Amino acid sequence: MLTDARHAWLGYLAVSFVVVPVLFVARHRRSPFVVRIPPADRYGWIEVIYAGTLIGYTCWLLVSPPAAPSEPLAGWLLSILGTLLIVCSVVGMGPHWRIGQDPEDTRVERVTAGLYGLIAHPIYAGMILVAGGVCLLDDGVARSVLLLSTTSLYTLVQSSAEAAHWSGRAAR
User: For the segment 70-117, what is each residue's pLDDT rounded down to a tens digit?
Assistant: First the structure.
């Protein structure tokens, strides 16, 4: 039987990495994924390392005994709000959404309207909310620390890399 942490985490993964990208491809006729293997730069390496961390966390969560949530209501609320924030952010970016950076793609513009006018990086904020929510649903302290700390570190490093990438480019 799946625990609350497993349901919340797998739901987030399904929405963020399957449903939203599939709908993006159906609407915009191109993939949102820009990650190259092997990575060409530091940004790409951080993407790959973080993806590996998420895969490791997921495996650890799935093979561990079911957990007793410490704060189920708060955990679910944070997980759902974070996922909704991510979905709304992607919708607000329209055809300009990407997972990764492609300096040669001139069709992608920096978005500063909507949620991006209120929060510099709403997708990253959503990721931190989800990670925090899942931590409240998971009693595995080491797993929770791994997820929340790597997600926070990832968002800090990548947001500064994106700021450097977009500096000097026109905003939409």
Answer: 788 999 999 999 999 999 999 999 999 988 777 777 788 889 899 999
In a domain, 170, yes or no: no
Domain that holds residue 45: 4-163
**Cβ–Cβ under 8 Å, residues 103 and 43:** no
Q: Is residue 135 part of a domain?
A: yes
In a domain, 92, yes or no: yes
How many domains does the structure of the chain reveal? 1
> How far apart are the two ends of the chain, measured CA to CA in Å?
46
Residue 128 sits at the vertex; the CA angle it makes with 62 and 171, to the nearest 5 degrees, is: 130
Within a domain: residue 97? yes
> Rounded to whole angstroms, what are the CA distances from 18 to 5, 61, 78, 93?
19, 19, 20, 17
Q: What are residue 171's DSSP bridge partners?
A: 110
- Could you give the C-alpha distances from 101 to 14, 36, 53, 91, 146, in angstroms and in order? 22, 10, 20, 18, 25
What CATH number should be reported for the domain holding residue 143?
Answer: 1.20.120.1630
**Exposure string over 81-90, b if 16+ CB within 10 A, otherwise e:** ebbebbbebb
What is the DSSP secondary-structure string of 95-122? GG--BS--TT-TT--B--STHHHH-S-H
Is the pLDDT at 9 greater than 90? The verdict is yes
